[in-house]
């Protein structure tokens, strides 16, 4: 009995023991941003998921500060939340979308199944225009959770290039053209202040490597890469692939229909051979090619109506953007081709 009583009397004392200043709990409870950042970083290093509520509370407190808070602390907290795969509501992430959007996008995509409506809002937003890889990652998540709104947005943004391969009467119709691809590189310099934890920068990538983590599986998988500068000054760089979202839309539309891209009625380029005889006939042939492209688009819309992924009245109101691209294959290249409306 005396032993039990002694243990009971000891419990309140144990519960009130002071927190070690250099422990994760002590650092997170500290008053300076540097110590809090060190605590947040160490919490992720030690895989302390139990600290997620404290990290979320710190993040909310930073967002409420009139002076904007500490940018380094905020990035460190977001970095730790990513490493701990934390699930946060949008209201806690929204204040950081403009400042650290890649961090925010990763946190949303890690739990895409719980953020479908948010991802639809981002995909549909004119104000928060997604960068290309953000757009692909979001589309990957949404195509796995089909909705009429997603299908409608894809169809509304379609642009069809009416590609005219122009030949002379003695040549007959031919097909020609070219394709191009390319990418750029982004770079910058960051400096880690003395006494602060390492600085982590995040990038979205299309290519998997030893350091990349899959964040949005799909027809074009999107990965994230974490680049860490331990101390001093270091360089950063991330790939900037060519924006191909108009072409990608047709791939996602085919996926929603459960078909191969080659099986849908229209693609981003509608190619037609035109034999040039005179200006008037050329313009009529071009107009006929554009009309055919639009009709093929209508057939595509009808397939979505049949599946219940598009309202018939909405389908009738959607008009694809079209543009001409003339590829002159005539041997002499004359007379000059007239402009097309």
Secondary structure elements and their pairing?
Elements lengths: L1 H14 L8 H5 L4 H13 L6 H13 L6 H13 L6 H4 L7 H9 L6 H9 L7 H12 L4 H9 L2 E9 L15 E10 L6 E7 L6 E5 L5 E8 L2 E10 L3 H13 L11 E7 L3 H28 L5 H6 L3 E8 L13
Q: Please give the radius of gyration in angstroms.
A: 28 Å
Count of individual helical segments: 13
Q: Tell me the quaternary state.
A: single chain
Rough outline: elongated
Largest sheet, spatial ordering of strands? 7-1-8
Per DSSP E runs of 2 or more residues, the count of β-strands stands at 8
If you average the pLDDT, what whole number results? 86
- Helix share of residues? 40-55%
Ranges where pLDDT stays below 50 over 5 or more residues in a row are 1-15, 175-187
- How do the helices and strands follow one another from N- to C-terminus? HHHHHHHHHHEEEEEEHEHHE
Largest beta-sheet details: 3 strands, parallel
Give the strand content: 15-25%
Query: Structural class per helix/strand content?
Result: alpha/beta
Spell out the key features of this protein.
about 350 residues; alpha/beta; three-stranded parallel β-sheet; three-stranded antiparallel β-sheet; 13 helices; elongated; disordered N terminus
What does this entry look like structurally?
Helix 5 packs parallel to helix 7, helix 8 crosses helix 9 and helix 9 packs parallel to helix 11 (245-257). The N and C termini lie far apart (98 Å). The protein contains 13 helices and 8 strands. The model is unreliable at 1-15 and 175-187 (pLDDT under 50). The chain is an alpha/beta fold and 341 residues long. The protein is elongated and about 90 Å long. A 3-stranded parallel β-sheet has the order 7-1-8, with helices on one face. Strands 3-5-4 form a 3-stranded antiparallel β-sheet.
